[in-house]
Amino acid sequence: MFYKLHYFDLRGMAEPARLIFHYAGQEFEDIRYPRENWPKHLSETGRAPWLNVDDEKIHESLAI
Prior knowledge:
Layout: E1 3-8, H1 15-24, E2 29-33, E3 50-53, E4 56-59
Protein name: GST N-terminal domain-containing protein
């Protein structure tokens, strides 16, 4: 499995997922979007963060 975590370039709602990945020693791609590009980098639901797990997309920080 390969993980890609998408969020803005700040800690916020994605930080717990980042910490868990690091704690577990799990490799993941931490994709951070700069402030000026935020609106065009939201998920289909208009929210962030989201996590790609192979071909699946998981939305909402609590689900991640």
